[in-house]
Amino acid sequence: MGKGLFVTGTGTDVGKTVVTAGLLRMLRAADLDAVSMKPVQTGCTPAGKGWRVPDLEAHWAAAAYQPPVDEAPWMSPYCYAPACSPHLAGAATGQYPEIAAIEEAYGALASRHEAVLVEGAGGILVPLDDTHTMRDLMRALRLPVLLVATAGLGTINHTLLSIAALRAADLDVAGVVLSATDPHADRQIHEDNPRTIAAFGEVPILGRIPWIGGENGLDWNAFAAGMTGFDTLRRSFQ
């Protein structure tokens, strides 16, 4: 059975999808049979008998990958039109995400592939229903967790609190990736944050991703250059 990595973030819009997409691209370029899944996706749009899943489509576009038709349902077992928290989307539609079903979908993918990247929704304690959070899903899957955080001002507190929440649940924190979400960065802050988080969080910084957006699309070469801990992650799947 293949091995997995759970990609979570300190919150929404911190770069989880970009990091997951970039890692999928790099793993597949390194001849590793890697796939991704987005167990819970809100903000979907109908497409025929199914859904368009924006985060998964971003993964596939980055990696120039199109999954087999029979595997697509495993990659996005819970899709919702409302663009909100999973528990609100579940309440609105009458179907909450079920951890057991996500475990089954992950197991099906892991049995066919060498590596599975699982991108969470929102942050660590985002509710899935009235009693479970995204952290409960992480505990059920028992995967190392890669924490994505913004690179700029305010990230120290958010990142250290997130690390504490993961470790309180006995989850293995594989490392932190800092992602620039603002093209107008304060260089001094961006230089200090990784050192401070590594020291206080006792965690490796596996990537410092610069702002990679632009008129011509995302600069994946810049992403790869910033993903300094890629070899460490790649070896974990072998």
Question: Could you describe the 3D structure shown?
Answer:
It is a single chain. With about 240 residues, this protein is of the alpha/beta class. The protein is built from 10 helices and 10 strands. The chain has a 6-stranded parallel beta sheet, sandwiched between helices. The chain has a two-stranded parallel ribbon with strand order 3-6. It has a two-stranded antiparallel ribbon with strand order 4-5. Helix 7 links the parallel strand 8 (about 145-150) and strand 9 (about 175-180). Helix 5 (about 100-110) packs across helix 6 (about 135-140) and helix 7 runs parallel beside helix 8. The model has no long low-confidence stretch (mean pLDDT about 95).
Shape: globular
The value of Rg in angstroms is 17 Å
The count of DSSP E runs of length 2 or more, i.e. the number of strands, is 10
Low-confidence stretches: none
Strand content: 15-25%
Strand and helix layout:
Layout: E1 3-9, H1 16-29, E2 34-37, E3 40-41, E4 45-47, E5 50-52, H2 54-63, H3 72-75, E6 78-79, H4 86-93, H5 99-112, E7 115-123, H6 134-141, E8 145-150, H7 155-168, E9 173-179, H8 187-201, E10 205-209, H9 220-226, H10 230-236
Parallel strand pairs: 1-7, 1-8, 2-7, 3-6, 8-9, 9-10
Antiparallel strand pairs: 4-5
What is this structure, in a nutshell?
The protein is of the alpha/beta class.
Give keywords.
alpha/beta; 42% helix; six-stranded parallel beta sheet; single chain; two-stranded parallel sheet; 238 residues
